UniProtKB/TrEMBL annotation:
Keywords: 2Fe-2S, Iron, Iron-sulfur, Metal-binding. It comes from the Bacteria. One of its GO terms (molecular function) is 2 iron, 2 sulfur cluster binding. PROSITE patterns: RIESKE. This is Non-heme iron oxygenase ferredoxin subunit. SUPFAM superfamilies: ISP domain. Residues 3-99 form the Rieske domain. InterPro entries: Rieske_2Fe-2S (IPR017941), Rieske_2Fe-2S_sf (IPR036922). Pfam families: Rieske.
Amino acid sequence: MAIQICPVEDIKPGKAIRVKVGDHAIAIVRTKAGDVRAIDDKCSHGEISLSEGFVDNETIECWAHGAKFSLETGQPLTLPAYEPVAVYETFVEDGVIYLEYDAA
Ligand code: FES
């Protein structure tokens, strides 16, 4: 199911927002190159919102203890996180970001 998120220009390159799909928090991220990525908002190391972290090209860094995650795979790239977080497909149509999300 594709869920409409927001106009792409509402998220500046290098920034992220937190959206809720039901009870599930997802970070919608724009890489510094402007591409759109979606990743579980909760850091796998603690109760911290990754959307409040630091976006680099294809990584997001948790502000709490510095774990970096790949925005393409969700894999942790640095300690202290060692569990991946889920990533989701997105697409942009007519300037609007959509998130592919299956509630099942
Ligand atoms: S809570 Fe994210 S690195 Fe510790």
